[in-house]
Amino acid sequence: EFVVNVSHELRTPLTIFKNIVSNLLSGVAGRINEKQRESLEIANKEVGRLSRIINDFLDISRIEAGILLNRENVLVQSLINDVVELLTPLADQKKVALSTSMYGADLFINVDRDRMIQVIANLINNAIKFVPDVGGRITVRAKELGDEVCIAVEDNGLGIEPDDIEKVFNRFVQVEKHVGPGSHGTGLGLAISKELVELHGGRIEATSEIGGGTTFSVFMQSVREFSAV
């Protein structure tokens, strides 16, 4: 409760500050020179980072308090397309090729749509940090494996040492030597994803090869009903 209250108290001044910086960048208060623009862009970036940290702490608090899932039958292909569309501008900024591979019949899972969007977005965001600035590739795949649906996020980044694979799902853990400059966060994104997936009754796995990239795979029970949204 303390974390939730403090987080909410911080969000209001942060939102105000972010709006002020955005207005200054857009020239509402008059023209700005290049040096001023650089400083404001740094401030804007750091405010965004702090907002993400607060959101991560709120998510952890909600999970520990016993978050309620609003389940519905969801078309997996539509779910993935929505997340990829949302994150394509971020990938474009880093010149990362973000694509999907979803051939075959429609796939359905019974999940909280917003929470699964959060899981997939976390995995893609994580991949964007690890891929090279030139030639970076991320592919989101979906396929049916028996009575499960597998959603996989593959990247061609640096890869993770075998001893570090299981650690990446722990809270506040980052594999520092594989994170690029300016990519540091709270080390909560993958932990939150794992806990949300398990809350749905699914599982998440990671496979990696040094120099050969990393794949995070989410496995959820498939459903046959066609009343999906």
Low-confidence stretches: 176-183
Strand line-up in the sheet with most strands = 2-4-5-7-6
Mean pLDDT: 84
Radius of gyration: 19 Å
General form? globular
Main features:
7 strands; 229 residues; 5 helices; five-stranded mixed sheet; 2 domains; single chain; alpha+beta; two-stranded antiparallel sheet; Heat Shock Protein 90
Overview of the molecule:
The protein has helices at 2-25, 34-65, 76-93, 113-130, 189-199; strands at 71-75, 97-101, 108-112, 137-145, 148-155, 203-209, 213-221. By secondary structure, the protein is of the alpha+beta class. The protein has two domains: 2-65; 71-221, Histidine kinase-like ATPase, C-terminal domain (Heat Shock Protein 90, 2-Layer Sandwich), CATH 3.30.565.10. The strands form two sheets. Strands 2-4-5-7-6 form a five-stranded mixed β-sheet. Strands 1-3 form a two-stranded antiparallel ribbon. The protein is globular.
Short summary:
The protein has 229 residues and is of the alpha+beta class. It is 45% helix and 21% strand.
Write the topology of this structure.
Blueprint: H1 2-25, H2 34-65, E1 71-75, H3 76-93, E2 97-101, E3 108-112, H4 113-130, E4 137-145, E5 148-155, H5 189-199, E6 203-209, E7 213-221
Parallel strand pairs: 2-4
Antiparallel strand pairs: 1-3, 4-5, 5-7, 6-7
Helix pairs in contact: 1-2, 2-5, 3-4, 4-5
